[in-house]
Amino acid sequence: MKEKTIVSTVTLAASLISYFYAKETAKDVVPYVMIGGFIGAVIGEVVVGVISNKDENN
């Protein structure tokens, strides 16, 4: 799987989770989606780093 696809998928998932959390708690959704997207991008980059590091060691 390509690195870009992994990061985009994790970012989208985190953004959607934050959106639904904000809607459920009746808060403004924009800050939650922005923070969720940022956290998702960081997590996606970490996952890609771990996967590529594992591939290099084999």
Radius of gyration: 14 Å
Distance between the termini: 17 Å
Derived structural class: mainly alpha
Query: Strand percentage, roughly?
Result: under 5%
The total beta strand count reads 0
Please specify the SSE layout and strand pairing:
Layout: H1 3-24, H2 29-57
Please tag this protein with its features.
single chain, 58 residues, mainly alpha, rod-shaped
Describe what you observe in this structure.
Helix 1 (3-24) packs antiparallel against helix 2 (29-57). The mean pLDDT is 93. The chain has 2 helices and no strands. The two termini are 17 Å apart. The radius of gyration is 14 Å and the shape is rod-shaped. The protein is 88% helix and 0% strand. It is an all-alpha fold and 58 residues long.
What's this model, at a glance?
The chain is mostly helical and 58 residues long. It has helices at residues 3-24, 29-57.
